[in-house]
Specification:
With 127 residues, the protein is mainly β. It is 0% helix and 54% strand. Strand 7 (72-77) and strand 8 (82-87) form a beta hairpin. The radius of gyration is 15 Å and the shape is elongated. The termini are far apart.
Length: 127
């Protein structure tokens, strides 16, 4: 129904920057939010950032994990069905697989929202 593909990961030195991209395709008409998560080996998956999706909304909002506030910025291009994560001042503890998740209203009123995950992109920060 909805396909999500991440890109832009790689290997950088501490203090460097990367920009991740997440492109959504398929039946995207009822999407209402896009999210970035990350997971390091042996650690639980952590929500990094969230942004509202619909281009018809008059207001916008973003949310960030405390660990990335002031360093990461999430943004969107609704016309291109793409969300970005600009990562600056990277630290070794930012090393993880980064995943994109799309949130969509369900087809019936008795179901919770649907979620669609990408395959992930590796970010490695060397010290």
């Amino acid at each position: 129904q909805v396909q999500v593909v991440e890109s832009g990961g790689g290997l950088v030195q501490a203090g460097g920057s990367l920009r991740l991209s997440c492109a959504a395709s398929g039946h995207t008409g009822d999407l209402y939010a896009m999210n970035w998560f990350r997971q390091a080996p042996g650690k639980e998956r952590e929500k990094v950032a969230t942004i509202n999706w619909s281009g018809d909304w008059s207001g916008g909002w973003t949310n960030y994990a405390d660990s990335v506030k002031g360093r990461f910025t999430i943004s969107r291009d609704v016309a291109k069905t793409t969300v970005y994560l600009q990562m600056n001042s990277l630290k070794p503890e930012d090393t993880a697989v980064y995943y994109c998740r799309a949130d969509q209203f369900p087809p019936d009123t008795e179901s919770p929202p649907s979620t669609f995950w990408g395959q992930g992109t590796q970010v490695t920060v060397s010290s």
